[in-house]
Amino acid sequence: MEKTIQSMKFLGLDMINQANSGHPGIVLGAANTVYNLYTQHMNANPDQAMWFNRDRFILSAGHGSALLYSTLHLAGYNITMDDIKDFRQLNSITPGHPEYREAPGVDSTTGPLGQGISMAVGNALAESYLSAKFNTKDFELVNHFTYALCGDGDLQEGIALESMAIAGRFKLNKLILLFDSNDIQLDGPVSNAHSDDIEEKVKSMNWDYQIIRDPNDFDAINQAIDKAKKSDKPSFIEVKTIIGEGASSAGTSESHGKPIGVEETNEMKKAAGYDKAMFEVYEEAYEDFANTFGARGKSAYKAWVKTLEKVKEKDIDLYKKFMEVVDGKLSVDFNEVLNVAKIGMNEATRSTMGKLITKVSEHIPHMVGGSADLTASTKAKGIDGDFDVDHRTGRNVNFGVREHAMAGVVNGMTLHGLKAFSGGFFIFSDYMKPAMRIAALMQVPSIFIFTHDSVGVGEDGPTHEPIEQLTMFRATPNTTVIRPGNAYEVEHALRFALEAKRNPTVIALTRQNITTKNKVDYDHFKMGAYIVKDYDKYESIFIASGSELELALEVQERLAKEHNIYIRVVSMPSQELFLKQPQEIQERILPNKCKNKIAIEMGSSLSWYRFANKVYGIDEFGRSGKGEEVIEYFGFTADKIIKDYLRE
User: Fold this and answer.
1) Which of the following CATH numbers is that of domain 527-647: 3.40.50.920, 3.40.190.10, 3.40.30.10, 3.40.50.2000?
2) Is 157 one of the annotated active-site residues of the chain?
3) Distance of CA 383 to CAs 359, 386, 390, Å?
4) 333, 360 in Cβ contact below 8 A?
5) Mean pLDDT confidence for 292-320
6) Which of 606, 488, 605 is nearest to 550 (CA)?
7) 184-185 and 188-189 strand pairing
8) What is the rounded distance in angstroms from the CA atom of residue 420 to the CA atom of residue 427?
9) Catalytic residue among 324, 403, 576, 601
């Protein structure tokens, strides 16, 4: 045990010293806790890093990545010593903060504090739902814990507390949060910025609370985790540690993010009796992990595979449905299920989406989600009742007024294989942006559904009228933004989001009614833009998204009828998808020979100039008034656009 912990600590310090960058304080302070967790409790298989029923470990204090990498290396994951030496180097699998998909054994991207706690809550919620959905009296397919390690900084972030409140409300008892409590943060003592009573706060959120005052008391740590496993609530274990323990800077903020240096590290090794050079570890450390963590995890994995085989033999329907979750596949016929759209229908796209969610959810048992206290307005609501303590198979999650946590929890649910979605007003995506960025960074297909997508919101005024939000998400890498212009496009947007394998989808919907004037098939929709109505000879192209598609078609029709002016109308529900098309497709839809391309969208004009030479947009905040009056104020009427066009 002692040699293993020393190997974890000093390998972490060697990584930081070689990179001349990193956070040694948590490596030295939290190694005991992480050692106990992995060797005595965690059920995971380093040979099958993505095993579905593994225990998850999320390092919410992501700056402690050196400790995680050293642990995973010693535990038998495919992280070589060369990978360890490449810590924080360009294109290595051991970056400065843990990144999902980079190194095996990293269960989520973390670093922005609080995000890891939120995703851990999402993991635990997914485990709770899936176990209730798929376990039977004869077969246990889902049964695992989600562990997270956090620091003082995590618990000062709003998302952490929002998420913990959700976990406590739903009594997610398979969630265990280990708090590396050292009373130090980057700018000095925690007391400089924090006076909360953590114990009382945690208990008030319906969590079990325990404290370990001696971080070297391994029996106490193990007993606390054992007790937490038996709780009917989420568990919070505070472990009082010394940041940078053993270093000259121990107990001070200096040890948080400043390398200790090779010379002092060698002195520490000598004082500890650690007779290994840089990047050398005890062979006993590998053996220790193999005999505990490795043996236990591999045995549990084999037992689970046998259970899976029995389910396949005894209940093939259950097996197929469960494997859809495991493999991330869908068996739904979208053409048959998503069939609510009709030419001439007049309703808000949020209402169309609500109907579609209800219909398609009946065919996708792992589609779960909800809104931030807004389902009556967003219509983004899961089926089968509310998820709750006594109804774990309910698929509507009442997130409460906690947008940031909602996005983070959805990410955690998605990481666990659910087709998870959230709902909210588009303006409040500002609260969700950090978690949505993490989804994009991890390249996971979280689904973010937004309504009230323009100044058409009206009376609620500029505080509730999105202007820059579309541009913000269009500028976010690995994110597909879809703003449907009619009911058919809403159908295809939801299908696209559900079929996505890698990247999150943002769907922006209207509050106001719009008329469906054209039909489009899925293949043309997936191009991101398509020709809605055309003439053999046209002098300009209108490019529109969302509710402005109907406006563009009206302007086109009137210019042709009243002035013999012929315009091509292009719907562009997704700029990102269009830009991924081959050049010949882009040229066919928006040919270079047509020099007058006019974009129409009630939002920031910035993103449209790569497609158009002129933009009817809104580059100021909105106004309060009746929706149609606000729309007219900003010039989004056929009369005003026709008058402006003729003037040119």
Assistant:
1) 3.40.50.920
2) no
3) 9, 8, 16
4) no
5) 97
6) 488
7) antiparallel
8) 21
9) 403
Using CA atoms, how far apart are residues 160 and 533, in angstroms rounded to an integer?
49
**Distance set, CA 224 to CA 178, 218, 231, 239 (Å):** 10, 10, 11, 10
Concatenating the DSSP letter of every residue in 385-397 gives SB-BTTBTT--B-
Tell me the pLDDT tens digit for each residue of 406-451: 999 999 999 999 999 999 999 999 999 999 999 999 999 999 999 9
Question: What pTM was computed for the model?
Answer: 0.98
> Which pLDDT score is estimated for 648?
77
Q: Boundaries of CATH 3.40.50.970 in the chain?
A: 2-299, 334-515
Residue pLDDT, tens place only, 530-548: 999 999 999 999 999 999 9
Q: Which CATH superfamily is domain 2-299 in?
A: Thiamin diphosphate (ThDP)-binding fold, Pyr/PP domains (3.40.50.970)
Q: Residue 325, exposed/middle/buried by CB under 10 A (0-12, 13-18, 19+)?
A: buried
Angle between helices 218-229 and 24-40 in degrees, nearest 10: 60
Crossing angle of helices 24-40/65-74, nearest 10°? Answer: 40
Compute CA 385 distance to the chain's CA centroid, rounded to the nearest angstrom.
24
Based on its alpha-carbon atoms, the radius of gyration of the chain, rounded to whole angstroms, reads 27
From CA 498, how far away is CA 360, in angstroms rounded?
10
Architecture of domain 334-515 in this structure? 3-Layer(aba) Sandwich (3.40)
Let me know if 71 is exposed, middle or buried by CB neighbors in 10 A (0-12, 13-18, 19+): buried
Edge-to-edge strand ranges of the sheet holding 56-59? 56-59, 146-151, 175-181, 235-240, 208-212
204 three-class SS: helix
214-238 exposure pattern, b = at least 16 Cβ within 10 A, e = fewer:
ebeebebbeebbeebeebebbbbbb
Ranges in the chain annotated CATH 3.40.50.920: 527-647
* Integer CA distances (angstroms), 577 to 417, 426, 531, 580, 610, in order: 24, 21, 15, 5, 14
Q: Residue 400 and residue 373: Cα distance in Å, rounded?
A: 5
Helix ranges (DSSP H) in 500-594: 522-525, 548-563, 575-579, 583-589
